[in-house]
Amino acid sequence: MTSLRKPVIVITGASRGIGLAVTRLLLKDFNARVVALSRSQTPELLALASDDLLIVPCDIASESALTDAIARAERMYKQIDGLILNAGILDPLGTIGSDAPISAWKNHFDVNFFSLVTALKAALPALRKSEMGGRVVFVSSGAAVKASTGWGPYSASKAAMNSLCRTMAEEEPSIVSVALRPGMVDTSMQSTLRANENSALADKDHDKFVKAYNEGKLVKPEDAGHVIAAMALRAEHALSGQFVSWDSDECKPYRSS
């Protein structure tokens, strides 16, 4: 870093789960300023209030709201050094032949994919100027590279995310863009999946989630979150365009231990 200024990281989906863990880590362990974009403001997020945290209520599916929120972040801090694209939804769960309307798929992509494009367009000018070298961390999923019954929208949107990451790496070589698989993290999403017995999920998939929970094998949000936070600040250029798992050898330098 060539500046004494604190780095500024913008994160979507910051109010709970892994997004909340990353926000906390950036503030307390990485001495960063954080712009937390979230549709809701949870007590846990509000409890982190400080001069280094700007909380902006934002519906990321709204192009104008998300663009304005990122512009506000740059006006406030005069810089953006990293962008963490974490917000996402799981619904609709169901097979392609189910009665889920196409509008539900479109809403899913508005949140899980098109918001990424909006955020990138809004943040790119500042990321290009970052004295640290701009970085983008796409919070992806193993679902991006495998098929599971009932996961059509989610798998497709995460695959599209990984493709967008690769395109960013080609088009913006000065910015490091990495897609990260955080694993099965102990969040509300996992609770939802465990509760979906006898639903559109295949029995083997439901059993996998229940077994991981019962055996204490779910990833702690702070563990995968540490990798995300560290990458948003210092991911190496060799990783740009790649899809990596938080517990892989490539991510060892970014883990807490």
Description of the molecule:
Keywords: NADP, Oxidoreductase. One of its GO terms (molecular function) is oxidoreductase activity, acting on NAD(P)H, oxygen as acceptor. It comes from Tricholomella constricta. By secondary structure, the chain is of the alpha/beta class. It has a single domain (8-184, 221-247), classed as Rossmann fold. It is built from eight helices and seven strands, in the order βαβαβαβαβαβαααβ. It has helices at 17-28, 43-46, 63-77, 102-129, 152-171, 188-194, 203-214, 221-234, and strands at 8-12, 33-38, 53-57, 82-85, 135-139, 176-181, 243-245. A seven-stranded parallel β-sheet has the order 3-2-1-4-5-6-7, with helices on both faces. Helix 1 (17-28) packs across helix 8 (221-234). The longest helix has 28 residues, at 102-129. It is globular, with a radius of gyration of 18 Å.
Give a summary of the structure in a few sentences.
The chain has 257 residues and is an alpha/beta fold. Helices cover 44% and strands 13% of the residues. It contains eight helices and seven strands.
| Widest sheet: strand ordering | 3-2-1-4-5-6-7
Structural class call reads: alpha/beta
Count of discrete structural domains: 1
Q: Could you state the order of secondary-structure elements as H and E?
A: EHEHEHEHEHEHHHE
Q: How large a portion of the residues is in β-strands, by DSSP E? A: 5-15%
Spans with pLDDT under 50 lasting ≥5 residues? Answer: none
Q: Over all CA atoms, what is the radius of gyration?
A: 18 Å
Number of helices: 8
